[in-house]
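Re: the request from the purification team.
They wanted to know what the chain is likely to look like in 3D before they choose a buffer screen. I agreed to run a prediction and write the result into the notebook, where they can find it.
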Amino acid sequence: MGGKISPALLELHRLNHLVLSYNDFGGTRIPEFIGSIRALQLLDLSYSNFSGVVPPQLGNLTQLQTLDLGGNYGIRSGNLYWLSHLSSLSRLVLDHMNTSEDANSLWLHQVLSFPSLDTLSIGSCGITDITFERGLARVNSSTSSSLTTLDLSSNKLTSSTTLQWLLFNTSASLAYIGLSGNQFSGPIPDAFEKLFFLESLYLHDNMFEGQIPKSLGNLSLVDLDLSHNDMGGRLEDLFASASSKLMSSLYSLTLSHNHFTGSVPNLGKFQALTWLFLDNNKLITVETPTAGLSKLEHLDVSHNSLQGTLSETYFIGLSNLRYLDLSFNRLKLEFSKNWIPSFKSRLIYLANCKIGPSFHEWVQTQRGYVVNLDISNAGISDEAPQWLWNMSLGYLNLSHNQITGTIPDLSSTSIGIVDAGYNNLSGTVPSISPLIWVLQLSQNMFSGTINSLCPYAYCRISWLDLSNNQLTGTLPSDLRNMQASEILNVNYNNLSGEIPHSLGSLSKLKTIHLRGNGFYGELPSTLQGCPLLQQIDIGGNKLTGTIPPWLGEKYTDLAFLSLRQNRFYGVIPLEICDLTQIQVLDLSRNNLTGKIPECFDRFTALVDKNKTTTTKIEVRTVATDGYIDYAFVQWKGEESMYTNTLGLLKLIDLSSNRLVGSIPESFSSLKGLISLNLSRNSLTGRIIRGIGNMDMLEAVDLSRNQLSGEIPLGLGQLHFLAVLVLVNNNLTGEMPSSPTLQGFDPFLYAGNVGLCGLPLPLCPQDSLAPSSHTNNEETDDGLSFMQDFAISMAFGFIFGFWAVVGPLLLKRSWRIAFFNFWNVVGDWLYVTIAVFFKNFTRGC
């Protein structure tokens, strides 16, 4: 429902309940006349897209027991003095209301004074320590005795004093405390012993440190969430101090993303435990089986340092297990071949667990139940069984194993995500169903064509990665049935033909990888229909034509462009300078001519040294963490692959073309540039004076041009410079006095006849003849040294000769043994050589 709220409601004199929640009133203000419906006891306007200041006329509704304005993200508090008139309130919800305009008033104190207040939810209201403490400073132990629910989550609370006041001064009847998403730090106060009725405690997403307070072990908690903090200590100590009340009541325990150490303890006595999340800690062992946890449905111990072997005995009694995540540990799973687990899990994640070399048969017992299955990097070197593809999975990850065999036709399956990359699979790429979102088959041995990849009128595939296989033929000529595509990667195959014009119909495309194939022809102009592109890598093909100006005009988000090693010709268009977000521009190894444009200083991302981009593309799936883009870049003379650090790389490579003219002075504005390669062109003029301003440069290659003049002083002031190649230019003059420049190999300056000074030979003005007096002294010293050296050599030779020959002349037995030894050596050499030649002639 939308539109306007009619004032005709005023005619309903006995109206005591008004619920308009979950509608859309288009950002309009809450009508003031609602404050005149005096009989109202319940007013619920939550999640209805109201905005503006809440009308103070609502303070006239003195009979209100419930006021819910939560979820209206555009509303502001104004002055909340009117709340003091609503003393009959038992439930007040103001979530997402901006209260910063009234941060210094006592409205919180006034609300907490209401004798019947049961629920106060003021999450995401921008409340600070000042607002909170001004209220609690006036609250005595008898105030708000009826309060059972207090939610202050996602505010701006930081002070430990605020937390202590909360625990010591609010109602002992509290059953729910929500303080998540604030900025509390330090240890959690051990002050929960008076909160006898506390059932739910949410302190996650803060910066708490230290151990879990022991007083929590004496409560009857149902839900405890301390995740995403900096807490630590031995986990088994917490469970050892738990009371029988906690053992019988605890339903959900979430300690994820902390620093807990030790073991996953024996939890068999926690008979009500249903959700257990211990992931992303520093646990190292699993000591005992989980027998007794018959109600456990969710078990997540992923991303720890767990080691050892788990057998089927660990899972005895877990008949209700629906979610199992043991991934990213060092566990080995050894189950008997005929084991049939008692559970029927929907989600099974075993990445990095050692399962292989064979597939576990028990997995197929989950058919019809399991939806997500991850057995990546599990040491499997078996052939993919047929039953694996018949399990009606939604998500299957087999990547980073050594699995062999083929993948059957998937065109009639319900699977949504298939990741089988980095295996030894072969055969043809299977046809896919219209339900598949992700198909990742890179780094295998697939062959054949992909013309019939998607045989339906519409396929919702968003992520297609077939790179590093042995595919042949062309890309499908009609790609219009893949309108949801965001990622297309066919790098390093044997594909050929022209890039299909229909590729331009994929308007959601964010990255194109066609590198290392045999594509030819010109870039189709229809690619202008892909305005969201962030990365284009078409290097290593046979593409021709000029660089189209629309490359710079259409792609406002393009961060990576590689046309490397093709056959493009003509000038670099000025429009290329409109790529303000470009971080990697690689036009090397083409036939480009003309001058380098003067406008490269419009590359905003290269001007700003602090600018970085993310290489992660979010794919709309629940089972993947997103696509981490990567690229191949010529870096310091070698082709390297960048993934997670790609967003930090800033590079321009125009090498191996036929560019002329001088290096534009505008390059000096590129203060964020890390690598510059202009080698193997016909550039003339001087190295730009402002190169010293490019203080992030790590690699500079200007070799094999016709640059002249002196090396600028600024080049020696680049603190991060690790690679400098100036070979084969016409540079002259003395090398700047710089430890950086003088530390490079002289070979890197070779071919510059007029260049001198360290590390090259000294310049003429530095090699003047020293005085004759000095020469005479040096000559005398040299002659004296040579005489001493000759005498030492003579004595050494005479002593060494007689030390060996003398005993042979004087002692007959030594002489006989010496010559017998050489006779034996001679015989051995003769036999060895004779046998070798005989074998050699026989082999011929």
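For the purification team: The CA atoms of residues 195 and 639 lie 63 Å apart.
Please add any questions underneath this entry.
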